[in-house]
Design a protein that fits this description.
The chain has about 260 residues and is mostly beta strands. The protein folds into two domains: about 100 residues, Immunoglobulin-like (Sandwich), CATH 2.60.40; about 120 residues, Immunoglobulin-like. The chain contains one helix and 16 strands. The strands form four sheets. A four-stranded mixed beta sheet has the order 4-1-7-8, with no helix packed on it. Strands 3-2-5-6 form a four-stranded antiparallel beta sheet, with no helix packed on it. A four-stranded mixed beta sheet has the order 12-9-15-16, with no helix packed on it. A hairpin with a 5-residue loop joins strand 5 and strand 6. The longest helix has 18 residues. The chain is elongated, with a radius of gyration of 26 Å. About 5% of the residues have low confidence.
C-alpha cells in the first residue's frame, strides 16, 4: 500500500511540473512575460522567392511560406524573461540569410519594412517619407542609390547631387546629398510640359561626373501632384561593364506612407 501511495504522489508531482509549462516550448508560466508584435511590410522584386522566419519558424500567409512582390504580415508573440526574438529574411532557392533582425522588450512593438531586389536592399522604407508638396500642380523627388559604385568602380565614395533639367536644357534644380543608405534632400518644382526631364549625377557641390570620363545621365517623366522616392540603380552590359544608371523604381508605388 505504501508503495502505491508513493507511486501516486510521484505521478502527481510529475503532472504538476508538466502542466506548469507552456505547450510550445515547455516554458514555465511563472517566468516574466511581455506581449510583443512585429509588423512586417516588404516588397521582393528579386527573381527568387524569399521566406520570413521568426525564431526558425516560417511565416505562412494564405498557406504560402515563400513570397514575391508584396509581403504584409503581423507577428504576435510573447517575450519570456527579456528573451530576444529573431526575424530572418531568407532566399528560398539558395537558403542564404539576406538579413537578420533582433527584437527585444526594449521595443516590444516594432515595424520591419524593406525593399529587396538583386544587389539592392533598402532598410526601414517606411521611415523614409516622400516630401510634402507645398501646392498643387507640383512634382517632387528624393533619391537613394543603394548599389552606388557596384559596376562603375569609381574611386569617389562621397555624396552625389542630381542636376535636373528640362528637355530644352533649362535647369530646374539640384537634389543634394544622395547616398547608399538614406534618401536625399527633397526638391519640388512646378509641373510643365513636355514632362520629360533629364537627370545628371555629379559629385556633391560640383558639376563633375562621379565616373571619370563619363557623363552619367538618365531621363524620367514627371507627374503632376506626385512626390516620388526614386531608387537609382547602376546597370551593366552582358560583360559586366558599367553601362549607366536607371531611375525607374519609385517606392511610393509599392508602399503606403
Amino acid at each position: 500500500m505504501d508503495n502505491l501511495v508513493k507511486v501516486v504522489i510521484a505521478f502527481l508531482i510529475t503532472t504538476i511540473c508538466l502542466s506548469s509549462c507552456s505547450n510550445d516550448n515547455l516554458t514555465p508560466l511563472n517566468q516574466e512575460q511581455k506581449a510583443g508584435k512585429v509588423v512586417i511590410k516588404g516588397y521582393n522584386a528579386m527573381p527568387d522567392s524569399i521566406q520570413v522566419a521568426l525564431d526558425g519558424k516560417l511565416l505562412v500567409v494564405d498557406k504560402r511560406d515563400a513570397f514575391v512582390k508584396k509581403i504584409e504580415k503581423t507577428y504576435e508573440f510573447v517575450f519570456y524573461d527579456n528573451s530576444i526574438k529573431t526575424v530572418e529574411i531568407i532566399n528560398k532557392k539558395t537558403k542564404q540569410v539576406l538579413h537578420s533582425y533582433n527584437f527585444t522588450t526594449a521595443k516590444p512593438v516594432d515595424t520591419l519594412s524593406f525593399y529587396a531586389k538583386e544587389n539592392i536592399w533598402i532598410e526601414n522604407v517606411l521611415s523614409q517619407k516622400p516630401g510634402t508638396l507645398s501646392t498643387t500642380k507640383h512634382t517632387g523627388y528624393r533619391f537613394i542609390f543603394p548599389n552606388f559604385n557596384l559596376y562603375s568602380k569609381s574611386s569617389y565614395t562621397g555624396t552625389l547631387d542630381a542636376i535636373i533639367t528640362k528637355a530644352n536644357g533649362q535647369e530646374i534644380g539640384v537634389v543634394q546629398n544622395i547616398t547608399k543608405n538614406s534618401f536625399s534632400a527633397f526638391l519640388e518644382f512646378p509641373f510643365s510640359s513636355p514632362p520629360i526631364i533629364n537627370i545628371e549625377l555629379v559629385k556633391h557641390g560640383t558639376t563633375e561626373s562621379y565616373v571619370p570620363g563619363k557623363k552619367v545621365t538618365f531621363q524620367t517623366i514627371m507627374q503632376t501632384n506626385k512626390s516620388k522616392l526614386i531608387v537609382l540603380e547602376e546597370k551593366a552590359d552582358a560583360n559586366g561593364v558599367f553601362s549607366g544608371v536607371d531611375g525607374t523604381i519609385n517606392l511610393t508605388e509599392y508602399f503606403s506612407f
